[in-house]
Amino acid sequence: MMRLLGALLVAAVLGMPALAAESSWTLEAMTPNLTDKPSLQRGLRLYANYCLGCHSLKFQRYERTADDLGAPHGIVMENVIFTGQKIGSLMTTAMPEEEAKGWFGAAPPDLTMVARVRGVDWLYTYLKTFYIDPTRPFGVNNKVFDNVGMPHVMMELQGTQREVCKGYEPLDIVHGEALIGAPRASQCLLEVEAGTGIYDEKEFNAAAYDLVNFLYYVGEPTRLERERIGAYVLAFLAVLFVFAFLLNREYWKGIR
Fold first, then answer.
1. Cα angle, residue 151 at apex, residues 81 and 112 outer, rounded to 5°
2. For a FRET experiment, which of 69, 139, 181, 238 has its CA 20 to 30 Å from that of 221?
């Protein structure tokens, strides 16, 4: 029963086919750091500016986020909350769900748990691998989520990225002539057109890191506290084991 409830919760949180076709694109490793408060604060700012218009964090409150990240409430009210909500409100989007279904085909999913479901490597690579695809409704596609149904909202930061396939390989020989096939997947790369983005590659990678780091925090805001308490619990159990061992030896001393 609990497994069924867990599966239903994940499906409700994501609101999308969690399990779209697997991509062969290699994921880039990303190691979150919840002690890096400046990174988390920048991630919150990026989320508010580029994501919150469509994607809510309906299990997270502005006040809790501000307190955990060491951000003054006044600054959060001025630079993060654009919908007239109070500091104690949940981080919900103002986009009407029914209209969003008409625009995108499905309502944009809530992202509170996305880092826990998808993984940070997947998210980090996803943010970096949007590329121009005129066949798609929003003019872009994504290497780790094929046929993605959303625009590249951070394109102004990253710039215009295109898929560039270099070199062709003969697939067969017919009557002495080589038949030229499609480029191999390993020969197709993503390249950003120089000067089209506000950030250079290093700066955009840092922005993607900060955003994923923030989403990792949102997935379990009490993670650092849990780990801190866990260390005390283990220390207590170690001390308890010593006393239990000595007591056990005392009990058996007259029997052996």
1. 45
2. 238
Residue 131 sits in a domain whose CATH number is: 1.10.760.10
3-state DSSP call for residue 69? helix
Q: How far apart are the first and last CA of the chain?
A: 49
Residue numbers of the domain that contains 236: 224-256
**pLDDT tens digits, one per residue of 42-71:** 999 999 999 998 899 999 999 999 999 999
> Are residues 31 and 140 located together in one domain of the fold?
yes
pLDDT at 185 over 50: no
> Are 80 and 191 within one domain?
yes
Q: How many domains does the chain have?
A: 2
Q: Any idea what DSSP says for residue 188?
A: E
* Whole-Å CA distances, 253 to 161, 246, 248: 76, 10, 9
Q: Are 240 and 182 within one domain?
A: no
CA atoms of 188 and 165, how far apart (whole Å) = 4
Residue 89 predicted with pLDDT over 50: yes
Domain contains 71: yes
Mean pLDDT, the chain, integer: 84
* Residues 133, 233 within the same domain: no
Residue 155, C-beta contacts closer than 8 angstroms, at least 6 positions apart: 130, 140, 161, 197
pTM of the model: 0.77
- Angle, in degrees to the nearest 10, between helices 201-219 and 62-69: 120
**pLDDT over threshold 90, residue 118:** yes
The reply to whether 234 and 189 lie within a common domain is no
